Structures are given as C-alpha cells and as structure tokens.
Amino acid sequence: MKKYILPLYLIASLIMFVACDHIADDERLIHVPMQPAKRVVLLEDFTGQQCVNCPKGSEVIEQLQEAYPDNVIAVGIHGGPLGFKGNSVNIGLATDLGDTYYNHWELEYQPVGLINRHGAVNYTDWTKEVKEELEKESPLEMELTATLQEHQVHVTVKETALRAGISGNVQVWLLEDDITALQKMPDGSVNKTYVHNHVLRAAINGTWGEECAPSEGETLTQDYQQTIDDTWNTSNLSVVAFVYNDSGVLQAIKTTIEKQ
After folding, report:
1. Which residues of the chain register pLDDT less than 50?
2. How many CA atoms lie within 13 A of 255 on its CB side?
C-alpha cells in the first residue's frame, strides 16, 4: 500500500481550520466597552444677598462638600429678585448673567438649586438629590487645566466619550471664593462681613457654552481665554467645566488656576 505524507504546512492549515470552526461567529470579535467614569455632581445654587434663607443653603453645600469633597461642585449664581448688584457703599454680586439663568429656568424663589439640571430643588432636599445623582454612572471623562498669564486665564478642557451617542454642550465658568460682602441673615439682620464662596463671575465660552459631540473613545479638546476683571482676586479664582444636554449634566470638573 502506498503511503501519502502531507506536507507540514498543510497539516498546520488543517489544525487552524478545525480550531477556528469551533468559535461561534459572535465570539470572534468581542467589543469591550470603556469603564464608566466617576460621577461628579453639579449643584447650581441660585442665591442672593437680599435672601434671608440663602445662608442656610450655603450651609447645606458646605456639608455636602465635606462629605463628598471630590464629587460635588457648587456654583453660586447671584441674580433674580433677591440679588444685589451693588452701590457706592456695598459690593454687589448679582450679574446680568445670573438674571439670565434665573429667568431661563423659570425659577420662582431663592434659594433654589439645580442638581445636574434635573429641575428646581429646594435647599432642604439637596442632600437627598445629590446622593441619588452620585449613584449614577457618567458616560464621559473630563480633564481641565487653567493658567494665569498676563491678566488672562487660559483654559484647556477635554472630553472623552465612554459610549456612543454622546452629544450636548460644554460649558466653562469662572468662579471666585472668599468674597467679603453683605448678606441678609435668617434672623433678619445684615452681616456686612459675610464670606461668599464659589461665586459665578463669568461664562468663559458664552452663556450656553459650545456644542460637544465626541464619538465613543474620542477625546475632544477646547482652548479658551478669559480676561480678569480688576475687582477679582486672582488667588481665589477657579474654573468649572461641564457637559450638559436636555437630559441634564453628564459630567463636571473643577480646577484651581495655576499662576505662571
């Protein structure tokens, strides 16, 4: 009987064919989704210097930031009917920008907050709402840097989509801490040495930000500049960036400003 010896390359090909034949079609290419990002909650505190209960809202914010120092970003938006724009004697923190936001959200009283922009929430319910938001996953990762150069803040913000279908606007704000200015207090008195924190000073990239729609795994980068007003203390400034759409705030981030 004549024997047939197969070349080694044919034997190897047969082994590979048989092995591959046992792999199901839907298992040959497995898509591994990116891991969700740590949730950071944005609390927009609509406040005013003529608002007697607004210091109570500030106390709630302090408690939340003490409990979740890396996960809760607060922004004090001064405006509305109880805002104060100042006079020749006293510093006012209310701005036209604050009025624009207050009127846009059709708010009716102060203090009131937007927590990841899911509707108006009384300050007595902020803790509960923040805890619920912290349990959610974020579809975005963000990076933020800010430097001060010759009376201008230079900002770079990055957004990386962790899933497909992300779209919205990226918003960048400038805040100031440790501002001493008058404040009406819950007992009806006026405290002229009250310290206001995380006060919204400017919308660096416009009132409503700019469009942002990264594809899954893609990182978008934006660069902005903001001229510093002479009345602002550059040592107390910080920058907040967040991405939002009609479903609310998707992710937020905050950074101090590095001086160069």
Report:
1. 1-6, 8-21, 23, 27-32
2. 19
Per-chain mean pLDDT for the chain: 90
Q: What structural domains does the chain harbor? A: 41-259 (2.60.40.10)
* Cβ atoms 179, 187 nearer than 8 A: no
10 Å CB burial of residue 8 (0-12, 13-18, 19+) is exposed
pTM of the model: 0.86
Question: Can you tell me the distance from the alpha carbon of 115 to that of 111, in angstroms, rounded to the nearest whole number?
Answer: 13
Indicate the length of the chain as a whole number: 260
The DSSP string of 204-244 is TT-TT-EEE-PPBT-EEEEEEEEEPPTTS-GGGEEEEEEEE
The owner of tokens 């913000």 is 157
- Looking at residue 119, the DSSP 8-state letter turns out to be S
